[in-house]
C-alpha cells in the first residue's frame, strides 16, 4: 500500500482496439493515461515539476508558497493534487470556454481559478499569467511550456512504459499542446527503434509545427505557439482531423469498444484509423489518450444526441 495517492501515478493500461479496426488492418493500442491520479497524463508532469523544483531549492514543502499555472484543466488537476499533498497554494488560469466541470472541481479542491477571455486567442490563459506574474513576484510559475521536467516525465515514464507494453512500434500518435508528451515519449520510442514514425494529431486548420492555431474544440491540443519544450524535429508527420471526425470516433469508441475517452484522445484515434487505411497489414500504432470523457459533457452531448454538423 502507498501512503500518498499521487504515488499511484503511472503504469497505466494499454488496450487494443478489437472491434473498430478490421483484422487485416493495423494493430491499434491505446495508452490510457486517464487512469492516473487526477485523471490525466498531466499527473506525471505535475509530479516531476514539483519534485524537481523542491530538489533545486525553488520550493520547500509545507511553506504554502503560491504556485500559478495556465492550464486547460488537466495540469491544473495534477498540480492541485500535488499542492494539497506538499503544502502549497495554487492559482490556475483557464480559458473561459473550457470544461465547467473541471473548473468546479478545481475550486472544490481549493485552487483559486481565474478565467481568461478565450475570444482573445487560444493562448489567452498564458498571456494572463504573464501579466499577473509581472505584477506580483511572489508567484512561482513552474511553466510546463518551458520546464524540461515536462518532457522528461514522458521520456522517463510514459515512453518507457509504452516500450515495456508493446515491443515493436511502427507509429506513435499524440496530441500536441505544450509538446511535452510527443517530445519526451517520442524521443524515447525513437531511441529504441529509429524507424518508429511519430505523428502529431493536428486540429483542422492549425499548423502545429509553426505554432499557428485557429479556434477549435479539441481541448488541450494546438495552443497557438511552439513551446520551448516542444522539439518539433521529433515529429515526422502531422495528420489533420476535424472536430466532427472526433465526435464520430468517440461514438464508435463508446459503442464498439466500451471506451469513454477525452476529446483529444478521440481525435488521436481518428488519426490512427486514417493511418490504418493506408499503411498496410500487421503494422502497430500506439495512440496516447490523455484522459477520459468525464470532463467533456458538452462534447458527449454532441456524441450521443448532436446533429454532428460541427465543422471545426
Ligand atoms: C486533453 C489533453 N490532450 C492533449 C494535451 C497536450 O499534451 P502536451 O501538453 O503533452 O503536448 C493536453 C495538455 O494539457 C491535454 O490536456
UniProtKB/TrEMBL annotation:
Pathway note = Amino-acid biosynthesis; L-cysteine biosynthesis
Q: Domain named Tryptophan synthase beta chain-like PALP: which ranges?
A: 8-287
Enzyme class label: transferase
Output the Pfam families linked to this UniProt entry: PALP (PF00291)
UniProt cofactor(s) = pyridoxal 5'-phosphate
Q: Which UniProt keywords apply?
A: Amino-acid biosynthesis, Cysteine biosynthesis, Pyridoxal phosphate, Transferase
Q: What is its EC number?
A: 2.5.1.47
Extract one GO molecular function annotation from the record. cysteine synthase activity
Its recorded reaction(s) are: O-acetyl-L-serine + hydrogen sulfide = L-cysteine + acetate
Which family does the entry's similarity section mention?
Belongs to the cysteine synthase/cystathionine beta-synthase family.
Name by which UniProt lists this protein: cysteine synthase
- Which species does this protein come from? Variimorphobacter saccharofermentans
Amino acid at each position: 500500500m502507498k501512503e500518498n495517492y499521487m504515488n499511484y501515478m503511472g503504469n497505466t493500461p494499454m488496450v487494443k482496439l478489437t472491434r473498430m479496426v478490421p483484422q487485416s488492418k493495423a494493430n491499434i493500442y491505446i495508452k490510457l493515461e486517464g487512469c492516473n491520479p487526477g485523471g490525466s497524463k498531466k499527473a506525471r508532469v505535475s509530479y516531476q515539476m514539483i519534485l524537481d523544483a523542491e530538489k533545486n531549492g525553488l520550493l520547500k514543502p509545507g511553506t504554502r508558497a503560491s504556485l500559478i499555472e495556465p492550464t486547460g484543466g488537466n495540469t491544473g488537476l495534477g498540480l492541485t493534487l500535488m499542492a494539497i499533498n506538499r503544502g502549497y497554494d495554487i492559482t490556475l488560469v483557464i480559458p473561459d470556454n473550457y470544461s465547467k466541470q473541471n473548473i468546479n472541481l478545481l475550486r472544490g479542491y481549493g485552487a483559486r481559478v481565474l478565467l481568461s477571455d478565450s475570444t482573445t486567442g487560444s493562448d489567452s490563459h498564458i498571456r494572463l499569467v504573464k501579466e499577473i506574474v509581472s505584477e506580483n513576484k511572489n508567484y512561482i510559475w513552474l511553466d510546463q511550456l518551458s520546464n524540461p521536467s515536462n518532457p522528461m516525465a514522458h521520456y522517463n515514464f510514459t515512453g518507457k512504459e509504452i516500450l515495456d507494453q508493446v515491443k515493436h512500434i511502427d507509429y506513435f500518435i499524440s496530441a500536441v499542446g505544450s509538446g511535452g508528451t510527443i517530445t519526451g515519449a517520442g524521443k524515447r520510442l525513437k531511441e529504441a527503434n529509429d524507424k518508429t514514425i511519430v505523428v502529431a494529431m493536428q486540429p483542422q486548420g492549425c499548423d502545429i509545427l509553426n505554432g499557428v492555431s485557429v479556434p477549435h474544440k479539441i481541448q488541450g491540443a494546438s495552443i497557438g505557439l511552439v513551446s520551448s519544450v516542444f522539439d518539433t524535429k521529433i515529429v515526422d508527420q502531422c495528420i489533420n482531423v476535424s472536430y466532427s471526425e472526433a465526435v464520430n470516433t468517440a461514438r464508435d469508441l463508446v459503442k464498439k469498444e466500451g471506451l469513454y475517452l477525452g476529446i483529444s484522445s478521440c481525435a488521436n484515434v481518428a488519426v490512427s484509423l486514417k493511418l490504418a487505411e493506408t499503411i498496410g497489414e500487421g503494422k502497430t500504432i500506439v495512440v496516447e489518450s490523455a484522459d477520459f470523457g468525464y470532463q467533456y459533457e458538452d462534447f458527449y452531448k454532441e456524441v450521443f444526441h448532436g446533429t454532428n454538423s460541427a465543422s471545426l
